[in-house]
Specification:
mainly alpha, Arc Repressor Mutant, subunit A, 8% strand, DNA-binding transcription factor activity
Length: 143
């Protein structure tokens, strides 16, 4: 690791992730969800009726984290779980009307959080940074 934290990509990436999460959390709390739930909501807005395993594969978080997050989302009235028609061990995850209705506001809140953290960036700088982040994430997935 670099001697100076500001020269460590690992340290900076962690700080950046925390910054985006904080910026989103402030906006998300007003709508009734948490920043950590957004990736799951996005997947379910795109395709409902996924199993927990399918969500795990798409969102790329730990199984225990997924189980806890889904439990909180169910408690908060964002999702409901239904029995899988052919696999007794699995449940399908569906959005509630509340979660469906918040889609536009939630995505707008995420966009506002992005805008806040990219304040002062010129368009090409933001696009270049996003490209670099995607590249680093792709490299991390190969580890």
């Amino acid at each position: 690791m670099a001697q100076n934290r500001s020269d460590s990509a690992t340290y900076l990436a962690g700080q950046l992730a925390k910054g985006f999460a904080r910026a989103l959390q402030v906006r998300a709390a007003k709508l009734g969800f948490s920043a950590g739930q957004l990736p799951i909501l996005i997947e379910l807005w795109n395709e409902e009726g996924l199993t927990q395993k399918q969500l795990l594969d798409r969102v790329d978080i730990e199984q225990a984290t997924m189980a806890n997050t889904l439990s909180r989302m169910e408690r908060d009235g964002l999702i409901e779980r239904r029995p899988h028609p052919t696999d007794r061990r699995a449940q399908l995850v569906f959005l509630t009307g509340k979660a469906r209705d918040m889609k536009d506001e939630a995505l707008s809140a995420a966009d506002e959080a992005d805008q806040a953290l990219f304040a002062g960036f010129r368009r090409f700088e933001k696009e270049l940074m996003l490209e670099y982040i995607r590249w680093a994430i792709d490299n991390a997935r190969k580890l």
